[in-house]
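Pasting as-is:
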Amino acid sequence: MSLDIQHIAKSFGDKSVLEDVSFQLEKGKVAVLMGANGSGKTTLFNIITGFLKADYGKILLHNELIDKLSPHRRNTKGISRTFQDMRLIGELSVLDNVILAFQNQSGEQWWKVLFPIRSITNEQDTNKGKAERILNDCFIADVAESKANEISYGQQKLLNLACCIANNAEVILLDEPVAGVNPLYHKKLELIVKVLKKEKILLIIEHNTDFIQAVADEILFLNGGTITKFVDYATMRNNKAVLNAYI
């Protein structure tokens, strides 16, 4: 199981943001994407998930070319992400937000209305049970019935991740999962990430050094439109080019 990013380039007008970005992600490792503000990290996330189109390059998921697919099709292929602005449905309960994230539910396909009501009810019960287990795994089962806009910012971050898990994604991109979050939830997110990496491909944008050191198996440093790979945070921190990028 792999995600291959090959020679991605992206410019906005006369400004080149990504010039020749290539790397491969595999199950079992957590890759953290770092770089100074404006280096192109979010742009790269948007290209991988289809919200932006690269000027050049290829994206392959399990050796299948996906760079021409829409965001929705990439999601159904197994790529999911979180956003800094959450994008939760605030008036719905925490539990319902997770249930809505499940793919291929009966209500989404017109022909499934031909099934007996009992089969649809059974599906709903199954999804409710699955959602409750995901919320428990994400440490927010105690707020399952609360509205999403009523829980804390840290709990919303956990809910955002729970929705990615419910989406059954094979590739999860996390955009600053601990930014602005109470340190109490940092440890919970660390535990979730360490469990997920056994089954998922994980790429994380993050600036919190404690969190990075706790979860990262490799660092992808984005600078000058290209990626430099480091085996750990300590090696990256002592690199002269990295230090110059933050000056």
